[in-house]
């Protein structure tokens, strides 16, 4: 309580002093009297301001001293430590032969004297001693004396295995940016096998061999390589190496936070998880994974080599600074809000400890404090009065000394408030100074306002690390200052060049009207600047009024004051940005983007000052570590995208060119595997070209990317993804010029730079193929499409040859000893080179889609290339992958076959559209059909052992072709199915034969169903009984005529399809009849039986036949071949049964084929006899009306004669015993045949032979 009371007393005293000085500085209130003369009053007021300045200056000086002392405390690796290590080297260096490289053992195995052995050890010790002092010198010495090989792998092996090396020096050496040390570091990290190793354990194992260096850039290079190596060994661990890179920093920060005694507020598991949100390519890592990693680090400290508890006690609060992580910590933890150092429990306890056991009176002792945080209490009390005193004085007086004191006070106040994190107070002081610059109303500017501009520049340079959001005010002042400079120099207002209708990338220059000329008084930009506005106005309000010559002269004289500030001071702020710490640079860039956007959004006066400075800032800060650059670029890229999509074409072109410059500079830096830095840098081009509608912008982006590829092709790495996305967008452009320009660049990439495309990331191959497929789809130039398809085939060859595997140079999976060149450390290749089967999907499916291109040459080329690729490289595909190939590439290609079958119509209505029989005929002409079916058949036969699970679907496709009403597809499908079955006859199993016939059965049933529906529709149409053809017009409506004509046409198509299916089934039966399974036999018999029965039923429907006959006569159409249909169905049925009876006796006996054959023969004879008028049906209907005239009856008998002859020949071929068993069944029909009249003498001849050879012997017995 005593401590707090005393602290409050001090705060009250400070408050009284500052308020008293404030009152004095402001002078007596209005209406009061004073005994001082005006001169004395002014002097007193100025002295009061001077006192306030001294107070804030003293606070800042004390704060700087304390911070300087605090920053000088981190432990250093002194020369004494190095000397101690060197002194102990004699003991450590007495290593045995087993500790020496194998070359040493081989060299001294046959050594003649011990002296040679001793000399060798002395040289090694000398090299180690040099390394511990200057690592590069030590390595050069060891290489020159041939004690270490000259390759990076051999040096890395030496550093990893030899004893006595200073581990801190090793870390410094590994972090160097020179080429050879960097290669050694890469080889050293690559020697570790992190396969299936936890992330924390991987870092722990790496850091056992050396200490991390003290510079952030060196740490960054090591962590970057570690992340790449870990992702190579564990490809499925993270989405990219960027995740491992950020997580590595998080782990280092957590390790220090958890295990160093001076860190009071420890990070919790929830904090650690929160800090790593969204680092996995925008997604979160599993909380269980992060929780386990947190427990591992907290419970098991990552101890670097030569680390001890004594070292920990030295480190204190400045460990982050020691390791170069002070500015990176907040970037890793992604702190969105600044945590001020305000009064907290730690501060109170710290103060209490200083007052503990002090019994003297307060006025008798001074307490020395060393914690700058105590300043917060004092500043919180006095900042308001100081701001008021400085502001009022600066506004009321033009006295040089007084204004200088006020501006100094502002500078000190900004320094103190910014350094201790008082954001509100800092912004208040900065804003006030910015307002006093009067750059927003230059007509009223005075010398003190110019001094305020100088103060702003000084604040920016001296306290830039702490300004944060206040940067916006400073950069706004610089923007306005630059605009006034342009006016003062008579330069062109940038708006006039940016608004030029046909401006090019470079801004045009012309002379701005001189301010002294009359026309300047009417220029809206000049008028707006002279009239001025408020400080907070983002754009000037243009009025129709003019300025007077007096106002113009006054304005010109004021502009001369700005000559005191040159371009050097202005540009120095942007050049100085490279010295901002890692936390400060991001707010600086954000503020610069915001100010630039305000400049560009001006409706009549857009400017690019801040935009051009952005290029300079990017250039100055290009060497920052990638983690910081990622944060900077996330801000810049979003800004550049927004501006690149601007409606102002000149601004957009300028930004794209600026982006090209930045990207070209960044692409000079090499990228390791699994990272996405280059891709992120090129992403703005992708977004802009995908969203922009401007032809100029899209073509400019294509030119920019083409230039980058030509100049930086070896460093693009992950950026190839963005390159191909840009060209993909250009390939889909609606303008021919853009497409041709992009394809020219794409052609060069594939021909010359293909080996670089998948150097570090094989996924870019997919983007390359998609880009080529998009070019093939373009409608402007068939040559481009054909070349793109050829390049796709080239990509397939590369893929099949293993051309996508990462270069061996980039793997570095093992280090070689001087004598043993393989796997010195037991390391193994951690990258299992996949067969890359999944990369075939976009390639094959893209070609499949191209087969539906409306241009015949393109679709034929795509189809040929697709099947050639599959045939040439299909042996590389495993069976499961073949299933995916058929599903994604081959079956979609034949999806059109669903449309070439007969169209399904509603039962009650049929639209008479004869041209609709083949909807896709324009796309899939007969030649394409033949090629497609032939290619499918050849491919299936060629890889049958791998693709036999696809048999059912392949046969279904061929059957759909067979069912096509068009001659071309049906013939192609029939030939392909017969040929495939013939070539695979010996390989097909019983189940596979069954699948083939099931597909045919399904097609036959579908066709019969369609035919039945057609007949039902025919029955619903009323056909009048007319005697003359002319009655048709009176009795039939046009719609009915069209419907009947359509139905008849469709009946013919169905019958043709059904007969073709029967023929295919018959041909396949002949191949397989000797080895038919029972299930297959059942399916085939069902096909023949159902078709024969249905055909017989059709010919027995007298009324329907009569209706068809009448309508066809009226319409002058040929009738559907119903009798021919019936004859062929029975003929195929009889042939099947007879062949089975002759060639497969066992199955015939089991299924009673003989009886079925005789029954079918009897049915055929009865149909014939009914037609001749002697059948049982004819006798029952005797006396009734006849269907046809005598001539028609004779025609029908003639049509049925071949089938009857075939039946009688089959009966005559039966064995005598078989014929005897069925004579009672057949004899009545034979007798009726004798009585009947026949249209052909062959019937009588064959019948006579049956009576003579079959019945005669039975009678004679």
What is the gyration radius calculated from CA atoms?
48 Å
The biggest beta sheet, please? none
Structural class based on helices, strands and sheet pairing = mainly alpha
Q: What fraction of the residues are assigned to beta strands by DSSP?
A: under 5%
Mean pLDDT: 76
Distance between the termini: 143 Å
Helix count from the secondary structure assignment = 59
Low-confidence stretches: 1-9, 72-112, 307-324, 333-352, 354-364, 491-497, 499-514, 516-522, 539-544, 805-834, 899-924, 1178-1189
Dominant shape? elongated
Helix proportion of residues, in percent? 55-70%
DSSP strand count: 0
Note down, in words, how this protein is organized:
With 1261 residues, this protein is mainly alpha-helical. The radius of gyration is 48 Å and the shape is elongated. The protein starts with a helix and ends with a helix.
Present the secondary structure layout.
Elements: H1 2-26, H2 38-71, H3 79-87, H4 89-92, H5 102-108, H6 114-133, H7 135-144, H8 152-161, H9 167-174, H10 179-190, H11 199-207, H12 216-233, H13 241-259, H14 269-275, H15 287-299, H16 309-315, H17 319-322, H18 329-333, H19 345-355, H20 375-396, H21 400-419, H22 423-436, H23 447-462, H24 471-489, H25 494-498, H26 524-531, H27 549-561, H28 567-575, H29 585-600, H30 609-620, H31 626-644, H32 649-666, H33 677-691, H34 695-712, H35 720-731, H36 736-752, H37 754-757, H38 764-776, H39 782-800, H40 840-850, H41 856-873, H42 879-893, H43 897-900, H44 926-942, H45 944-947, H46 951-962, H47 967-983, H48 990-1020, H49 1031-1035, H50 1038-1072, H51 1078-1100, H52 1102-1115, H53 1122-1143, H54 1145-1150, H55 1153-1172, H56 1176-1180, H57 1190-1212, H58 1216-1235, H59 1241-1260
């Amino acid at each position: 309580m005593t401590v707090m009371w005393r602290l409050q007393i001090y705060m009250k005293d400070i408050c009284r002093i500052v308020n008293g000085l404030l009152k004095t500085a402001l002078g007596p209130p209005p209406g009061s009297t004073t005994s001082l003369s005006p001169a004395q009053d002014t002097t007193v007021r100025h002295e009061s301001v001077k006192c306030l300045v001294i107070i804030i200056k003293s606070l800042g000086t004390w704060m700087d001293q304390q911070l300087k002392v605090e920053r000088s405390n981190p432990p250093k690796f002194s020369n004494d430590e190095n000397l101690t290590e060197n002194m102990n080297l004699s003991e450590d260096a007495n290593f045995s032969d087993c500790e020496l490289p194998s070359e040493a053992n081989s060299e001294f195995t046959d050594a003649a004297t011990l002296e040679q052995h001793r000399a060798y050890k002395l040289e090694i010790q000398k090299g180690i001693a040099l390394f511990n002092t200057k690592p590069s010198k030590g390595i050069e010495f060891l290489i020159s004396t041939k004690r270490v090989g000259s390759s990076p792998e051999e040096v890395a092996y030496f550093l990893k295995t030899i004893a006595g090396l200073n581990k801190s020096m090793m870390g410094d050496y590994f972090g160097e940016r020179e080429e050879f040390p960097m290669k050694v570091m890469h080889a050293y990290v690559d020697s570790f096998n992190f396969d299936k190793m936890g992330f924390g354990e991987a870092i722990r194992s790496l850091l056992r061999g050396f200490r991390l260096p003290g510079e952030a850039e060196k740490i960054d290079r090591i962590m970057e390589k570690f992340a790449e190596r870990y992702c190579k060994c564990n490809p499925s661990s993270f989405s990219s190496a960027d995740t491992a890179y950020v997580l590595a920093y998080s782990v280092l920060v957590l390790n220090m936070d958890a295990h160093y005694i001076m860190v009071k507020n420890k990070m919790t598991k929830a904090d650690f998880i929160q800090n790593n949100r969204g680092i996995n390519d925008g997604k979160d890592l599993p909380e269980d994974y992060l929780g386990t990693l947190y427990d591992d680090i907290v419970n098991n400290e990552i101890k670097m080599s030569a680390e001890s508890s004594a070292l920990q006690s030295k480190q204190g609060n400045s460990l982050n600074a020691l390791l170069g992580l002070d500015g990176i910590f907040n970037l890793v933890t992604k702190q969105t809000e600044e945590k001020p150092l305000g009064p907290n429990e730690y501060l109170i306890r710290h103060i209490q400890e200083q007052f503990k056991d002090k019994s003297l009176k307060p006025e008798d002792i001074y307490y020395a404090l060393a914690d700058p945080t105590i300043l917060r209490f004092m500043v919180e009390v006095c900042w308001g009065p100081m701001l008021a005193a400085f502001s009022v004085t600066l506004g009321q007086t033009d006295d040089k000394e007084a204004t200088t004191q006020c501006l100094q006070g502002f500078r000190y106040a900004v320094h103190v408030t910014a350094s201790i994190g008082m954001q509100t107070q800092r912004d208040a002081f900065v804003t006030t100074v910015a307002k006093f610059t009067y750059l927003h109303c230059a007509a009223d500017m005075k010398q003190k306002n110019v001094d305020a501009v100088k103060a702003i520049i000084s604040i920016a340079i001296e306290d830039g690390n702490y300004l944060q959001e206040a940067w916006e005010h400073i950069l706004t002042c610089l923007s306005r200052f630059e605009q006034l400079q342009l006016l003062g120099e008579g330069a062109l207002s940038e708006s006039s060049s940016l608004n030029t209708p046909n401006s090019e990338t470079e801004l045009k220059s012309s002379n701005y009207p001189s301010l002294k000329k009359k026309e300047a008084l009417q220029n809206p930009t000049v008028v707006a600047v002279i009239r001025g506005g408020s400080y907070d106005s983002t754009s000037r309000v243009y009025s129709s009024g003019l300025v007077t010559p007096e106002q113009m002269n006054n304005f010109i004289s004021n502009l001369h004051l700005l000559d005191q500030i040159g371009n050097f001071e202005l540009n120095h702020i942007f050049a100085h940005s490279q010295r901002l710490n890692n936390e400060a640079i991001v707010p600086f860039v954000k503020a610069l983007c915001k100010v630039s956007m305000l400049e560009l959004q001006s409706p009549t006066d857009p400017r690019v000052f801040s935009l051009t400075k952005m290029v300079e800032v990017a250039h100055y800060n290009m060497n920052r570590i990638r983690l910081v650059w990622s944060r900077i670029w996330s801000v810049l890229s979003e800004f550049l995208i927004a501006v690149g999509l601007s409606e102002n074409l000149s601004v957009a072109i300028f930004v794209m060119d600026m982006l090209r410059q930045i990207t070209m500079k960044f692409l000079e830096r090499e990228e390791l595997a699994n990272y996405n830095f280059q891709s992120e840098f090129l992403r703005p081009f992708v977004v802009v070209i995908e969203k922009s509608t401007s032809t100029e912008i899209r073509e400019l982006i294509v030119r920019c990317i083409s230039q980058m590829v030509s100049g930086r092709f070896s460093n693009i790495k992950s950026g190839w993804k963005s390159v191909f996305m840009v060209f993909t967008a250009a390939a889909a452009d609606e303008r021919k010029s853009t497409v041709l320009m992009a394809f020219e660049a794409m052609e060069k990439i594939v021909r010359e730079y293909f080996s670089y495309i998948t150097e570090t990331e094989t996924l870019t191959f997919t983007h390359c193929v998609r880009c080529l497929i998009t070019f093939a789809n373009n409608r402007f130039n068939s040559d481009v499409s054909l070349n793109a398809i050829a390049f796709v085939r080239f990509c397939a060859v590369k893929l099949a040859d293993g051309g996508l595997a990462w270069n061996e140079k980039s793997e570095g999976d093992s280090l070689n000893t001087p004598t043993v060149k393989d796997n010195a450390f037991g390391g193994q290749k951690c990258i299992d080179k996949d067969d890359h089967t999944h990369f075939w999907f976009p390639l094959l499916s893209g070609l499949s889609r191209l087969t539906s291109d409306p241009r015949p040459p393109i679709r034929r080329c795509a189809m040929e290339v697709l099947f050639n690729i599959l045939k040439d490289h299909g042996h590389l595909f495993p069976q499961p992958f073949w299933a995916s190939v058929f599903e994604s590439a081959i079956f979609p290609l034949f999806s059109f076959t669903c449309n070439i079958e007969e169209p399904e119509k509603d039962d009650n209505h049929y639209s008479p559209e004869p041209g609709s029989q083949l909807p896709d005929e324009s796309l899939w002409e007969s030649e394409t059909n033949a090629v497609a079916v032939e290619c499918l058949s050849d491919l299936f036969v060629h890889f049958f052992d791998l693709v036999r699970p696809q048999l059912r679907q392949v046969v279904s496709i061929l059957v759909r072709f067979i069912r096509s009403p068009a001659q071309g597809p049906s013939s192609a499908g029939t030939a392909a199915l017969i040929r495939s079955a013939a070539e695979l006859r010996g390989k097909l199993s019983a189940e596979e034969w069954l699948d083939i016939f099931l597909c045919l059965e399904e097609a036959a049933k579908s066709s019969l169903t369609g035919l039945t529906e057609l007949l039902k529709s025919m029955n619903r149409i009323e056909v009048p009984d007319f005697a003359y053809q002319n009655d048709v017009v009176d009795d039939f409506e046009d719609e009915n005529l069209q419907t009947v004509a359509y139905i008849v046409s469709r009946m013919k198509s169905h019958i043709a399809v059904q007969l073709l299916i029967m023929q295919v089934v018959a041909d396949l039966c002949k191949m397989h009849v000797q080895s038919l399974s029972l299930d297959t036999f059942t399916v085939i018999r069902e096909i023949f039986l159902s078709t024969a029965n249905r055909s017989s039923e059709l010919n027995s429907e007298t009324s329907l036949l009569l209706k068809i006959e009448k309508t066809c006569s009226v319409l002058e159409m040929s009738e559907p071949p119903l009798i021919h249909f019936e004859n062929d169905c029975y003929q195929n049925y009889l042939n099947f049964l007879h062949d089975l009876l002759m060639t497969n006796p066992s199955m015939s006996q089991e299924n009673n084929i003989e009886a079925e054959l005789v029954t079918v023969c009897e049915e055929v004879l009865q149909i014939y006899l009914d037609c001749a008028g002697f059948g049982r049906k004819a006798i029952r209907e005797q006396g009734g009306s006849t269907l046809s005239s005598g001539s028609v009856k004779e025609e029908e008998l003639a049509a049925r004669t071949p089938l009857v002859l075939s039946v009688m020949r089959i009966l005559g071929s039966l064995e005598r015993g078989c014929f005897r068993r069925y004579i009672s069944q057949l004899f009545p029909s034979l007798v009726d045949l004798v009585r009947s009249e026949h249209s052909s003498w062959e019937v009588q001849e064959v019948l006579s032979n049956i009576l003579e050879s079959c019945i005669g012997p039975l009678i004679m017995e």
